[in-house]
Amino acid sequence: MATDVAVPALGESIAEGTLALWLKKPGEAVAADDPIATLETDKVSVDVPSPVAGVLSETLAKEGDTVAVGSVIARIDEKATASATPAEAAADATTNPAGAGENPQLRGTEHAPEPALEGEEDHIMTLSPAVRRAVLEHHVDPSKIKGTGKDGRLTKDDVLAAAQAQQAGGPVHEPEARAPAQQPVAPAAPAAPAPQARPAVAGERKEERVRMTRLRQTIARRLKEAQNSAAMLTTFNDVDMSEVIAARSKYKDLFEKKHGIRLGFMAFFVKACALAAKDVPAVNASLDGEEIVYHDYLDVSVAVSAPKGLVVPVVRDADRMSFAEIEKTIADFGKRAKEGTLTVDEMTGGTFTISNGGVFGSLLSTPIINPPQSAVLGMHRIEERPVIRDGQIVARPMMYLALSYDHRLIDGREAVTFLVRVKEAIEDPTRLLIDL
Question: Is 157 an active-site residue?
Fold first, then answer.
């Protein structure tokens, strides 16, 4: 009896996605709810789970195909048995680790069984879906990476670090050497003559064409739409971070002990923007046709870097949250953005955006509005600069702030006023406590 595997619902208004990766191949056993494929939508990657336990009997779509919600992409045979047991796979990996002359990296892209750790009997390396995707995308051998997770398991960060080392030509972290198990060794086959490598040509120029991911295509389209539709303008200011740095240094240990999360700078800026939006509500509004929609809440879209591009999960009701709630929410978003487990709903419906380019070293930028929002605040790196205080030239930790806004809705006076309110709250954090 075969059970169809259909494309699950991908979120409101999303009717299709791209089949990015098959995590299982025909003939492999799958458990109920075991991910068998990864779909890429305009905003997130979604795993497709198996509805039943059985064997993947056939796949009905190829990697890179666009598939509609509800369409059947595979079938699971509930009564069949897997074509190879784990023990057989382990034996094959031991006696023929390179796949009888095949490139092991290419075998990885074809979803070959996960290799066993060398010299370790009756043990198969188990990889989480996120780690498996990273292994296949970056073409690394998981058996040569030393895991830092619980019980020595591989994490996605381990794979990414190994991929970077591989690209840089450095050594991949090898597991500690172990004595090989005593096993009969089959006679070696005559070695085939090594193919002659084409000599490198001095000054040779190479090109590589890579298809844009669905997420990158969406980012490009939306940013260009924002430039074409909004009357976008950017105003700048700088802020002295001395008081926030002092407050953070004074209370960070107590804060982490009580709340279990580190106190960062983002919570200060979220609270400062919430305070400023009360004085300048147009910054937290949006245009809908010929109407202006004012919001009595602040849902902050926080720009987070993910492996496949920038995503903007939403901190809802940020104006009513405590510092600890804001920091916990943003930390969770950052972690799940790297894992690719953010949902569509979590990235929909923001009313204002904060983007922190300073974490990458940016000194100054003009951020682009995230439609249908009307404004975005850009934070940048902190550096000591000479400023005048009480007639004296002194060094202070300064940060440039940039507010890009839709001039159709927000006047220059309102934009400048909003940014000044943010500056005042950051330079005197007491204002955040007494609502000034």
Answer: no
